[in-house]
Specification:
The protein contains 15 helices and no strands. With 385 residues, it is mostly helical. The chain has a single domain, classed as MFS general substrate transporter like domains (Growth Hormone, Chain: A, Up-down Bundle), CATH 1.20.1250. α9 packs parallel to α12.
Length: 385
């Protein structure tokens, strides 16, 4: 499963780089860059709760396989549109929405499946290991995409991403672990209410959900507007864009390894908040930078901090949740974590044309520092975890 997910993630990151570059090349619009991110993420925000209910009622491998098939078809169609020269911005935006819809059901099922493959005491390391494969892809995928864009064009990036979905499909067909949902007569709406009730009444869970939302809503616009910095400030091309994303991935891998080395040690909440402070500082540092070398160093620290926060918060959520509720609870978490991306990108997409990207990103970093300080000094439940 690890190798299959890693191969697919590499392909996904190749498409992310190529798609952002294609949109900006065709439109030179920061708003359309943000709109693409919004349309790719908003289905996750809207439908993840339903996806979580389904993940607790249906065998999770079947859901994941369906999600992979839809994303494969979406990437393949985009490759054909680009290869034939008939692609328009609206094609890209619509296919982003379709892929996001598939992820809204695949995400909760995947997050609920992983803990069933390991023992409870190994769960933090399994989550960190899963983060490592994702961030290996963040390192390798953009680097490959930068070379592919410069040498053979966007079509190959989209086509290779479509082919990469074959790897997790094969892995899922070979997995022996099965989730057998408990029989029950409650409706989907009743199941959904039970999941939300569990989150509301479980001590500290609501705070973790808020942290997940704030982290992605305020940090992900940095990644979205890297093409703007590369093109308008550093006056470089797609290869530098891919290199910057790869450096972010290097930092993320280091962050995942650091968390994995700690195992199931206590103090995850405090570590997450300290790294959230660092994350806000790196966002503001990148925003005001006009030096390519300094920006490279800051992106490594950004990736480290982002993954350290993510791994700690995800581990806490998984450890608190029983398996029969895991799909629904992880869908609430996924809704907050992934939902913050489109909302943060949409808001920044409105503000950047008015205030410029450096100002908007600087404010995002300062706000994230404020969130970390609030949970460290005022609302201290997370620090007790």
């Amino acid at each position: 499963m690890w190798f299959g997910a890693c191969i697919s993630s590499i392909g996904t990151w190749m498409q992310i780089v190529a798609q952002s570059w294609l949109i900006y090349r065709l439109s030179h619009s920061a708003f359309l860059l943000a709109l693409d991110q919004f349309l790719g993420g908003i289905p996750i925000f809207l439908f993840s709760l339903i996806g979580g209910v389904v993940a607790d009622r249906v065998e999770r491998r079947r859901i994941l396989l369906g999600s992979q098939y839809v994303q494969l078809a979406s990437s393949g169609l985009l490759a054909i549109l680009v290869a034939t020269g008939v692609v328009h911005i609206w094609h890209i935006l619509c296919l982003s929405f379709v892929s996001g819809f598939a992820q809204a059901f695949g995400g909760p099922a995947y997050q609920a499946l992983i803990p069933t493959l390991v023992k409870r005491e190994d769960m933090p390391n399994a989550i960190a290991l899963n983060s490592i494969q994702f961030n290996m892809a963040v390192t390798i995928g953009p680097a490959l995409a930068g070379q592919a864009l410069a040498r053979i064009g966007e079509t190959w990036c989209f086509g290779l991403n479509a082919a990469s979905f074959i790897a997790p499909i094969i892995a899922l067909l070979f997995i022996s672990s099965r989730f057998l949902p408990k029989s029950g007569n409650e409706s989907m709406f009743t199941s959904l209410k039970l999941g939300i009730k569990f989150v509301r009444h479980q001590e500290s869970m609501a705070a973790l959900i808020v942290l997940a939302f704030c982290m992605t809503a305020l940090s992900m616009p940095l990644r979205t507007y890297i093409p703007v910095y590369v093109n308008d400030i550093f006056h470089a091309g797609p290869r530098i864009y891919g290199d910057l994303l790869s450096l972010m991935g290097v930092g993320s891998i280091c962050g995942s390894l650091a968390i994995a080395s700690l195992g199931n040690a206590s103090g995850k909440g405090r570590r997450a908040l300290i790294m959230l402070l660092c994350l806000g500082a790196t966002i503001s540092g990148f925003a005001i930078s006009r030096s390519l070398a300094f920006s490279c160093a800051v992106l490594v620290l950004f990736g480290f901090s982002l993954m350290a926060v993510f791994a700690n918060v995800s581990s806490l959520v998984q450890l608190i949740t029983p398996d029969e509720m895991r799909g629904r609870v992880m869908s609430v978490y996924n809704c907050a974590f992934r939902g913050g991306m489109p909302l943060g990108n949409l808001l920044s997409g409105w503000m950047v044309p008015v205030f410029t990207a450096p100002i908007v990103l600087t404010v995002n970093g300062v706000l994230l520092i404020g969130v970390a300080l609030y949970f460290l000094l005022v609302h201290r439940r997370v620090t007790a975890l």
